[in-house]
What we know:
nine-stranded antiparallel sheet; mainly beta; 25 strands; globular; single chain; eleven-stranded antiparallel sheet; 42% strand
Amino acid sequence: MTGDCKTASGEGFAFSLLSRGRFSARLVLDGQERLCLGRVTLEEKFSETGALEKKLRRHEAADLLSVGLESLHELPFGCEYAIARDLEISDGFADCSCDVKALHFGRVGSLDLGPVIFRGGPCRAAFLTCGGKGFREAELGDGAELYSGKLPLLMISVFWADGSGVEYAVGTDLWRHCAAQNIPDAGSEFTLSFRDGELVYERRVLIYGREAVPEKRPWRFKDLISWRSGGECAAAPAGDVAFSVPGCQVSPASRREVRRRVRSGSGNMVMTGASPCLCGDSSHVERPGREGFLHFDLAEYASFRLWANRHLMKSGGSLAVRCDEKSIFFNTVAARNLASVPRRLERSGDENV
């Protein structure tokens, strides 16, 4: 690793945002590097590795339930580009966003978000395709191509011999990862392969043909990373109050209801029957009456868990989110983390965070 970094650390993990080098971020579990996020490439030739660092910051929440990491790089090639990352790290989750925009009235053309790399010799993996009925077990043979398609994978679950596990999931904005399907003379390519002891997920989200005219707009892509170390996390307290809010959690009605339940409750609460889903109702993402805004609400559950515990812990309470046993996500790392109460993160020893 080269250059500076800002890190959020907690029980058994350290998640770092890096200023320079091949990777933009990395996750270390129990001292072992398990996941690295690559860097953006534009127009198939302008790599973020040659960008100029403009900002690298760390923000601690007062209650230490989360830490924010943010960076800004500018790429002085082509029409020049700005690449901003914003990560909210809590116990077991990293809610990640990457913003890419062209400067000086330019346009963002072909765009590769960079690989998601699971390192350290994983022993087992499974993945879920968009619209898939269940997870597919991956054969981790060297040189194996496990998936190749124009649609992104919804989730990748990876485990190591020491019991640790890491998951990548597409963010709420699934429609952006699929945007090329609705752009004339454009395409996309997503591949998952195993080589040299690493599981690599590559994401070419925009591939423009010669006749394509890129939109004059910035792009934002969101992802959710979940993890568990080899040790077991503390069990959540028995719930004094249980409630369920079915349906897509991205919808304004669901958001209002779950927050109403927490604000009107107290003590140790449990949200039951959680069932992450794909939803095509565009009104949930403020595009009523329009088509093509497919979204995935897993990240919304993680966001609600953090918000609710931040609210309830002020009076000694907590909230756990229990996944429906019939859900295909029931045995995932993400579901396990949702069912636990988030622990506070470590305070930085650096005054200039």
